[in-house]
């Protein structure tokens, strides 16, 4: 969690993020704190929670793993 620093748009809601607002980042995506949640079940993440970015969607571990099961493969452990 840190200040955005420049004005831009949230990757989840597409609304403006002022430069002075605290944001969450995942790769090149930037989110309002309130928008940083699983995009399937809306579970909010706390600092330190595990989340996944798949097809540019933020997912909780449960939804990510359920998606993998439907696709017929398991995640690789590194």
UniProtKB/TrEMBL annotation:
Domain LIM zinc-binding: 8-70
UniProt-listed Gene3D superfamilies: Cysteine Rich Protein
Name of the protein this chain belongs to: LIM domain only protein 3
Alphabetical list of InterPro entries matching this protein: LMO_RBTN_TF, Znf_LIM
GO MF, any single term: metal ion binding
Recorded coiled-coil stretches: none
Superkingdom of origin: Eukaryota
Tagged with keyword Repeat: yes
PANTHER family associated with the record: LD11652P, LIM DOMAIN ONLY PROTEIN 3
Keywords annotated in UniProt: LIM domain, Metal-binding, Repeat, Zinc
A single cellular component GO annotation: nucleus
One GO-annotated biological process of the protein: positive regulation of transcription by RNA polymerase II
Pfam families per record: LIM
Organism of provenance: Zoarces viviparus (Viviparous eelpout)
């Amino acid at each position: 969690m840190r200040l955005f620093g420049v004005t831009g748009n949230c990757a989840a809601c597409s609304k403006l993020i002022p430069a002075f607002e605290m944001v969450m980042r995942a790769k090149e995506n930037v989110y309002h704190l309130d928008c940083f949640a699983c995009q399937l079940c809306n579970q909010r993440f706390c600092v330190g929670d595990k989340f996944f970015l798949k097809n540019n969607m933020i997912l909780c571990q449960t939804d990510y793993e359920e998606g993998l099961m439907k696709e017929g493969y398991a995640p690789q452990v590194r």
